Amino acid sequence: MPTVPPSSLDDSLAREQFLATAPALRHLLQFDTPEIAERSRSFFLLPPEPNGRAALLLHGLTASPGQMERFAFVLAERGYAVLVPRLPRHGRSDRLTTALAKLDAVELVDRSNLALEAARELAGRITVVGFSLGGTLALRLAHDEPLERAVAIAPFLGFAWLPNRVAPVLARTALRLPNAFAWWDPIARELQLPAHGYPRYSTHAVARAYGLANALLADARRSPPRTHGIVAVTNDREAAVNNRAVRRLIAAWNASGAVGIREERLRGLRISHDIIEPERHPDIADRVFPQLLQIVTEP
Fold this sequence. Notes:
This protein is of the alpha/beta class. It has one domain (12-297): Alpha/Beta hydrolase fold, catalytic domain (Rossmann fold, 3-Layer(aba) Sandwich). Helix content is 37%, strand content 14%. The chain contains 9 helices and 9 strands. Strands 1-3-2-4-5-8-9 form a 7-stranded mixed sheet, with helices on both faces. It has a two-stranded antiparallel ribbon with strand order 6-7. Helix 4 (105-120) crosses helix 5. The protein is globular, with a radius of gyration of 18 Å.
């Protein structure tokens, strides 16, 4: 995969002239201060042959825009303007930073709303694609805004190993205790790939992200989503997030009168969560990418 440029506007003057007409996009890019790693910065791509659509791609917890590079390039080749924002407190050059401990739901929602505003500066018809925490944010946007489509890949709405009724208690307990950092891979530790993501997660960040998911479920019970094309993609052998929680959200939306919501179940994979990152599980990512791309771009 080639290194992602800051945009497909190669000429710096043309880039500045374009950003002068896109204030939300310009604001979004200004969050990438010097401590952010080069490959972890927000970026956008303008297609050579636009199809009138924009794709907003949201990465997962502890990851960065680098996680979405493959989607970004292929969608741009298919005529989409593409925006891949960096979520708050992610993407720092210091991969062992403790910044993630202060992550909260408000700044996540604010950043995703700003990113959606910026995507609308690129094209009028918006598809939001998110993975894990990014999938949760994609579903949040789909509930609140009339998008053309939202695709949530393995969205984080609960914990795979925990009953849904117990998860809120665990999240509240975690926030009452001091924050702790845990290794995603206790053996590889800081050598874990990909290098454009953090090798540790924060217990407080996970608990606050779950609060965002729980609030979405409460809203779904009160009203249907404003987006009529929503696809939740689940892995039948999911290792981290709770597929039953995904189905519970869909059921709540349907009971509220939702239209056009479905689950796509991926079968036959080995036990895993990160199914889209080529640098972590290339065999899984290569296998599922064509199917995910078809879901994202289907008529």
